[in-house]
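Reproducibility note. Readers wishing to regenerate the assembly model reported in the main text can use the exact inputs given here. Chain order matters: entities are listed in the order in which they were concatenated for prediction.
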Amino acid sequence: MAYVATRGGERAIEQSERLYREDLGRIDKARVDAIAESLPYLLDRVMGEASLYAPELAALALAQSGGDLYEAVLLLRAYRTTQPRITIAEPVRQDELFTVRRISAAFKDIPGGQILGPTLDYSHRLLNVGVLSGEDFVPEAVELANTPAPATQPSLADWQKAQGLIADPPAEHVLLDEIPDVTREPLLFPASRAHKLQSLARADTGGTLALGYATMRGYGNTHPTVNELRLGEAEVRIRHPRGTLFSTGRVRVSQAEIISKAKNLQLGFSATFGWNEVKVIAAASLDLASSQEKPHPASNEEFVLYHTEPVESSGFCIHFKLPHYVTFQSSLDALRKVKADQAANKAGAPAAGAAKPAELEKAIS
Amino acid sequence: MIETPETSASADGFSHAAALDILARSRPEAIKAFAETHIDELGPIEVAVSRTGLAMLPYVDTVQNTAFHLGEVLMSEAHIRLPERGVEGYGAVIGRDLEQSMAMAVIDACMAAGIGLAEIRTFLADEQRLQAQADETRLRKVESTRVRMETF
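Running the prediction on these inputs yields the following structure tokens for the assembly.
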């Protein structure tokens, strides 16, 4: 691969950006607010992939990019680099989440019970086309229960560990500033579990689904079922200068555990910013599949983590739109030479300087 | 996890941690307006920090108990000093509203300096009640979705 600096086309470039932005029209606060209010799950997806929790900025990124998710994620990742890191918050634990949804597909009677929370899982998916002709869709109000659900729910995995159903590895005490961080260290293989889970947390939803789906369909030797799926809000707890630990507010998070009974009960795990069930279920399946002794190539850890990084993968893909003229020109020169030689060969003896077979192969490879 | 020091009680009935929790979650316009009513009583204020930045949020994997980074949270932070009183105030809230974090820092400084404690206690109680009401309403809706399955 070769790159070349090109010159010219400045006006065209300027006008092309103008055309893009003119098509999107004026962006004002009202548009950003409308996006934030009406598309919370899209904001969640963008924030998860950007690895930056900032709903207002995610809405702005979507407004500026016209909804192009990769552009929006790139905008947020770029913004992130302008900000100092103030601190590392206290680790979030599952049983401390303000839980609004918590289900298990593998176990019916789980400690704390099954709470469907906000979901369309059991709903017909029908367009309300009446909205387009002026009939507003007004959602029916939820009938309040007499008593509130507990704000937190116990961990199913902890119960399973206590029952001896699954392994309970000892918790390794790691200082906050020693937790591996892929934003500051390269991702090397075999990856640490912390790097792996962080990479999956910021992975591309679509890419994660594609590879996770392949695993689910049988390109691997795990048979996943959802052990527990949870949506909730996590407190972001930091230290006051005097040492007091306090919450600066809550962020939406989702987490999934996948269980496989192929040999014995094994769990895979994933969590991400925002409510994004498809991503955490697919990512937890990939965590489990990639942890097997001889994983299928499609769930190999390196294959999964490299190819689900949204900014790198989308950036590499779209870079092929940019000038590759030197590379291509040299190939074209060789091809033309080959064609000329072939014509000369048919007509008689090879011309002086005719391409040799090796050159022919190189030219067309 | 390190225990929260509870020795530095702020306003009667609220530990420092509880007060900070409530302040960080208070309605932005309400806390700004409330801080405005006390700012003149503080005397000279040195602003050490007023900025936006990131808090990395670790998460503990429930399968292998591994702590990993979920991602970063954008927050605004304010740290002020009252040189004549020898106290400091600190505020940090999720988002990028510098006025909100500064209002929190002003109230924290008031608590540390013993200024307006009765009004602060009332403010905290009011905000705490609103926050509890919001949580209870949300959780009563959540409870409505509890399912008791029968398999046969």
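We highlight two features of this model. The mean pLDDT of chain B is 92. Helices of chain B lie at 16-24, 28-38, 98-113, 117-143.
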